[in-house]
């Protein structure tokens, strides 16, 4: 019980940053959608499924995320609590914000371009906020990590293959492909990198806590201060 209480005290301060990241990520997705210039490869895939189902964009995002987490576990990648929350809450926020109706597709091409650019910038910022707390990456990053380990191939090849695959399937299902898809594919990486540098977050030195680590910490298997000890390694 003492370990559980200590763990809660350590996790609670991380929640605002984690959920701010999810919220901003959801806004970024909707901005790209309403720019009507094309979405990122994964969101093209999500919208393709939406076109042939009774589910909303948020619900499809959740279901795809759930399937990806299961596949990642099979590949040997244990998700973190942040990964699980990402799967649920990004979808919830997407549907909630969309239901309010605050976004509309602009008639002016300049406004559409600005909306797309802001979407890319916001995606970089949101990624920083939910990764900086080191509670697990998003489900899709976990899949990439698992395939890199399993196939022993470089990250760029695995990531590129995944995104081309989901983009192709999404396109065949009628997902919104456009110039924005290419711009997003090229621009999101630098946007994330810039946000990391601005926030002084080094992803190479990050030690994300997965669910197994969380279980050990709660039960005191590795001692009360295991999170801090991992960071000091």
From TrEMBL:
Keyword Transmembrane helix in record: yes
Annotated keywords: Membrane, Transmembrane, Transmembrane helix
Transmembrane as UniProt keyword: yes
Pfam family, one: DUF6198
Residue ranges crossing the lipid bilayer per the database entry: 12-34, 54-77, 84-101, 113-133
Domain of life of the organism encoding this protein: Bacteria
PANTHER family: INTEGRAL MEMBRANE PROTEIN, INTEGRAL MEMBRANE PROTEIN-RELATED
Protein name: Membrane protein YczE
Organism: Clostridium luticellarii
